[in-house]
Specification:
The protein has 250 residues and is α/β, with parallel strands linked by helices. The protein has ten helices and eight strands. The protein has an eight-stranded mixed β-sheet, sandwiched between helices. Strand 2, helix 5 (85-96) and strand 3 form a beta-alpha-beta unit. It is globular.
Amino acid sequence: MEFSDDEVERYSRQLVLAEVGGQGQQKLRAAKVLIVGCGGVGGPVALYLAAAGVGQITLIDGDRVALSNLHRQIQFATVEVGDEKTEATAGAVKAINPNVRVFQIFAPIDADNAPTWIAEHDLVIDGTDDFATRLLVSDTCTMLDKPLVSGALGRWTGQVGVFTGKPCYRCLVPDVPPDAETCQRVGVVGALAGVIGSMAALEAVKLIVGAGEPLAGRLLIYDGLAGAARTVRVAADPTCRACAGLGHDG
């Protein structure tokens, strides 16, 4: 399918990249991406993937916009406080790129619906701040052989990882930590959400078009206070109940 004149102009700065070009832009348009969590990470991901020309974006979140979200979740406006996060995020996505098909699921993801929802997509982004949900999403992606981009943040530090089989996210976090931290408990500087969300979106674009080296089996850790980043390898856990049975590293 050819691009319209509007699309050629819209994506012109991306189309000239050797790693993208027309073929890569076609891959973006054909891609179906599921974003779990429309918060500090999921919001920037949704906006940047829409701007990049991803053809279908599905948003999952069972929460409503709160006033305390606005300092870091910049896809929302003050007048949207009380609205469904999925609806408000979808509106922001369509405002950026009306060519994108946006689907909204105003509900929490759980063990019953996760396999169906994840199976229908090519790539999953996890931007939640709940370890039980992260592990559920990771286990389901591993079971269905779907690539997962995971982003998390708290205080002044954030991390982004890509999991494409083995090792999986459960190799990094085997179980829900007993002292799990959330932004509500420990706080977070707002701009950090934009940094981590943008990094997660970049990894998603790389995966879709096949550019460069995604953070597969690696974790990028960003320290906002120090202005420094480091990348560490995630070792496959031979006893991992999610991916130990896989025949090769992802």
